[in-house]
Amino acid sequence: MNYNTEKTNASNVIAQQGDAWKAINPEYVARLRSQNRFKTGIDIAKYTAKIMREDMDSYDIDSKNYTQSLGCWHGFVGQQKMISIKKHFTTTKGTYLYLSGWMVAAMRSEFGPLPDQSMHEKTSVPLLIEELYTFLKQADARELGHVFQELDAANDKGDQVAAQAALKKINEFETHVVPIIADIDAGFGNEEATYLLAKKMIEAGACCIQIENQVSDAKQCGHQDGKVTVPHEDFLAKINAVRYAFMELGVDDGVIVARTDSLGAGLTQKIPVSQEPGDLADQYNNYIDGEVINSLDQLKSGDLVLSRGGELIIPNRLANGLVRFKPDTGEDRVVLDCITSLQNGADLLWIETEQPNVGQIAGMVNRIREAVPNAKLVYNNSPSFNWTLSFRQQIFDTWNKDGIDVSAYNRADLMSPIYDETKLALEADQQIQNFQKDAAREAGIFHHLITLPTYHTAALSTDNLAKDYFGEMGMLAYVKNVQREEIRQGLACVKHQDMSGSNMGDDHKEYFSGEQALKASGENNTMSQFS
C-alpha cells in the first residue's frame, strides 16, 4: 500500500462530492487505510496462507528455515508477543501464533476452566481467532500512528529528508499480522459440524486448521490417557470438510494439519467395514487386539467376531464397548495414519508423542517419507513434558550405553538441583537448546510450537508478584520487578494508555472534530513521565 497513492485516490473521491465533503482530509483517509490494511478475516486468511505456503517451500529447500510459534490465550498476549518479535528481530518472518484448544478450554469457556475434552463452546475458537487479529491490527495502527507523528514533525520543520524517511517507513511497514495455526480439536461433531466450524474459523482469519483423529465426543488431551481414535475413512471425511470450507471461502491454499494421537491411543470406537482385502479398513482392523477362536461354540452372548487373514477373532472390548488395539502397534498406526492423511488432502502432519525425542520422531518420519518424500511436521514442544528430566535421562541412557561412567548420577532423581551444574545436566541443557534446530534437520519438523507457554508464564509472573507485593517488599515488588524492567527493556506496554489506544483516539478526534477536539494526551497526562 502506497501512502501518497492512497492520498491521491481519496482526494479524487472527495473532490467528486463538492463542498459536501470539504471537511474530509484525504491525508487522514490515507492514514486510516494504512492502519487498516485487512478489511475482513478472509483477507487475513488469504494473506497468511500465502506466507505459510512460501515458508513450507523454503523449508523443503533448507531445514534451517523452520518456523515457530507460541500459544496465546488472549489477543493482548498475542499482540505483545508480536510487538516483542518485531522489536528484537526487526521482522516477523518465520513466526506464527498458535491457538490451543487446551487453552481455549482452560481459559475462555463460559463454563469456567475445563479439561481439554472438547466440552467448551465451539464458538470460543473463532472468537479467539478474531480477537487475536483485532489486537494484531491494533498493533499495526499504533505503530503507524507514531510514524505519522514523525511525518508531521518533519513537515512542520520543513525537513524533507526526515519526511521521506517517514514515508519510507509507512510504505514498507511490516504488519504484525501473521499466520495462526488454529486447533479445531476432533471437529466438534460429525463432518458437517466440522465444516461449519471450519468456515467460522476461516472467516475469522485462520489460514491453517489442525484436526486430530480422535473420536469427537470422547476427545482427550493428547498427553492424557484414554484416547480413542477413529477409522481412517471417518478422519478423511473431516479433512475433506475442512478443504471444502477453505475452497468455498476462496482460500484455496489454506493449510490443513492432520494430527494423529495413535501413538498414545490404545482404543478405537468402532470396527470399520472392509470392502476388499488390504483396503484402509482392513489395514486398520489388522491392529485390533483379539482372541483367535476355532469354533463358534467358543462365543458368549454379545460377542463380536471379526474375520481377519483367514482367522476368526473375538475383538478385545472394554465394558463400555470400546475396542482395544494390539499392544506395541502405536508407531505402525502413526505411520499409516500420516501416509493416509497426506495422500488424501492434508498438507502437514502432527504426531503427538509422549516425550521430546529426536530419534523417536525421526524414526517415524523416515518411514512416512518412504511413501511421501516431502512429508513434514508441526510439532508440539509441550509443557506437558518434563523437559529437564527427559533430556537428562536421555543423556544418562546414552552414556550408559556407550560405557561412560554414570555412577555419580541417580537416574530416577536427575531432576534434583544437585545435578544442575554437572556435565550431564549441562549437556542435557545444550540438547534442549538445540532441540528445534536438530529436529528440523533430522526429523522433518517444519513448525515448532509450544501449546500453552503463556498460561504458565502468566501463572509464574503473577505468583512472583503476589509473593513479594503482599510480603515485605510491598510496592517495591511492582516497581523493581515490573515497571523498572519495562522502562529499561523498552517495553511499549509501559505506556499502557498509548497501548490501549488513547493516542489513536486523540488522532481520530482531531480528524473528526478539528481544533475543538478534546484530547486525553495533554500535559497533565501522567503517561508523559515515561517519555
Descriptive account of the structure:
This protein has helices spanning 3-16, 26-35, 41-61, 75-89, 101-107, 124-157, 160-171, 191-204, 232-248, 280-285, 330-342, 358-369, 387-401, 423-442, 453-469, 475-488, 496-499, 502-513, and strands at 67-71, 95-99, 180-183, 208-212, 228-229, 255-260, 267-268, 290-293, 306-308, 311-315, 323-324, 348-351, 377-380, 445-450. The protein is of the alpha/beta class and 531 residues long. Among the domains are: 1-35, no CATH class; 42-140 and 174-269 and 327-453, Phosphoenolpyruvate-binding domains (TIM Barrel, Alpha-Beta Barrel), CATH 3.20.20. It has an 8-stranded parallel β-sheet. Strands 5-7-11 form a 3-stranded mixed β-sheet, with no helix packed on it. Strand 3, helix 8 and strand 4 form a beta-alpha-beta unit. Helix 6 packs antiparallel against helix 7. It is globular and about 95 Å long.
CA-to-CA gap between the ends?
A: 30 Å
Stretches where pLDDT is under 50 for at least 5 consecutive residues are: none
What is the helix fraction of residues, given as a range? Answer: 40-55%
CATH architecture of the domain at 42-140 and 174-269 and 327-453: Alpha-Beta Barrel
Global shape: globular
Estimated radius of gyration: 28 Å
Strand order of the largest sheet: 12-6-4-3-2-1-14-13
Within the CATH hierarchy, at the fold level, what is the topology of the domain at 42-140 and 174-269 and 327-453?
A: TIM Barrel
Q: Tally the beta strands.
A: 14
| Fourth CATH level, the homologous superfamily of the domain at 42-140 and 174-269 and 327-453 | Phosphoenolpyruvate-binding domains
So how many helices?
A: 18
Report the sheet-strand fraction: 5-15%
- Structural classification: alpha/beta
